[in-house]
Amino acid sequence: MSVVLGDKEFFPSVGQIKYEGRDSDNPFAFKWYDENRVVAGKTMKEWLRFSGCYWHTFCGQGHDPFGPGPQRFEWNNPSDAKSRATAKMDAAFEFFTKMNLPYYCFHDVDLIDEEDSSVEEFGKKLDFITDYAKQKQDASGVKLLWGTSNLFTNPRYMNGAGTNPHFPTLARAGAQLKLAIDATIKLNGENYVFWGGREGYVSLLNTNMKQELDNLAAWLHTAKDYARKQGFTGNFFIEPKPMEPTKHQYDFDTATVAGFLNKYGLQDDFKVNIEVNHATLANHTFQHELQVAADNNLLGSIDANRGDYQNAWDTDQFPNNVNEAVEAMLVFVEAGGLQGGGVNFDAKTRRESTDMEDIFLGHIGGMDTFARGLIIADEILTKSRYKELRAQRYETFQSGKGKDFTEGKISLEELAEIGAAVGEPEQMSGKQELFENIVNQYI
């Protein structure tokens, strides 16, 4: 991939990021991510399908509830929305190509400022910037992994979008949703994501939960049907999150989403986009959410980041915990990877990291963490007794009466007779420490 520059080079101190191996002392080089290295029959590039995220990387400036951000981005300097949008896109594609990222993703208002525009005015703005994005994609070879619509930041969506109790507001959100789907299709986006930032409730006292869930299902069916009519063949993803900004969000976790999709007949078109930090906010591990998704044929895409274990908030830090990455990649590899999506970095540099090169360092570390986890997970699965030991815990279900039970051939009366004849069953150790030691051995 050649570097794509606009009229100005925004990151002149950083060149093309290349793989140099774990012994390299170059902070601007991959130590583990070698995109052409074959792991379990596929290249790393095919397994991970890394994607740069527009919002944190190019829109956020490190602000927090106590003050504005200290980060200064030159692409935000122009006074008019179109000039800011093109400058930001020049910076983005310079970054994507220097990082060798094959994909990117965005919210509609990340691309160009809405600025209280009417639907018609915002549609014209999106047409302008997506024309420019198409030129950038053609020049660079970078593809759109997925698009989505920000239906949670504007105050009009304080009570949600697809679950809003006020139909005119829901309809206004539908107009913005249509524009975002159109933009995604125009740019040959491979998927479309729904993150219900305010699709939930703050108090049940004023909430008709059944009405809101029914409306959300109708909202998703409407969007899906429209996109299919326009020729969109990709996946729709829902991104689970338990809370924040609402007290309780309807897409609480992957199991909740699976039940919702099956109840409302959406399971054939929708999968999940799992965020690491959202998993931990739901008091799950990342690998738990991956396993639930894989077991329900819903493993679509990943938002790669981490939270702070001492802070019950969505801190969106870059992933750096190799042990956690390995345990997650064990599930990932056994599931055969993702269905349509990729690994996108919904992560941001820390508020105090104000050098432009810090954006590169965060992504390099995150990509290396996932790559290293992938390599180690494959070695555990192919070289150790991990799978054999796990299977041994369930071997009594592989034959005889145990197998008959799993196949639905034993009634409760028969089960009771067998249980009475067994008497006190022998104690079986779970060997958790052994499994943990195997993981650490290969790290």
UniProtKB/TrEMBL annotation:
Mg(2+) 2 binds at residues 275, 278, 314, 316. Its main location: cytoplasm. Binds 2 magnesium ions per subunit. The keyword Transport does not apply. It is an enzyme of class 5 (isomerase). Keywords: Carbohydrate metabolism, Cytoplasm, Isomerase, Magnesium, Metal-binding, Xylose metabolism. Its cofactor is Mg(2+). Its EC number is 5.3.1.5. GO terms for molecular function: xylose isomerase activity. It catalyses: alpha-D-xylose = alpha-D-xylulofuranose. Mg(2+) 1 binds at residues 239, 275, 303, 346. It is found in: Cytoplasm. InterPro entries: Xyl_isomerase-like_sf, Xylose_isom_bac, Xylose_isomerase. The active site is at 107, 110. Belongs to the xylose isomerase family. NCBIfam families: PRK05474.1 (NF003998), xylose_isom_A (TIGR02630). Homotetramer. HAMAP family: Xylose_isom_A. This is Xylose isomerase. The gene is xylA.
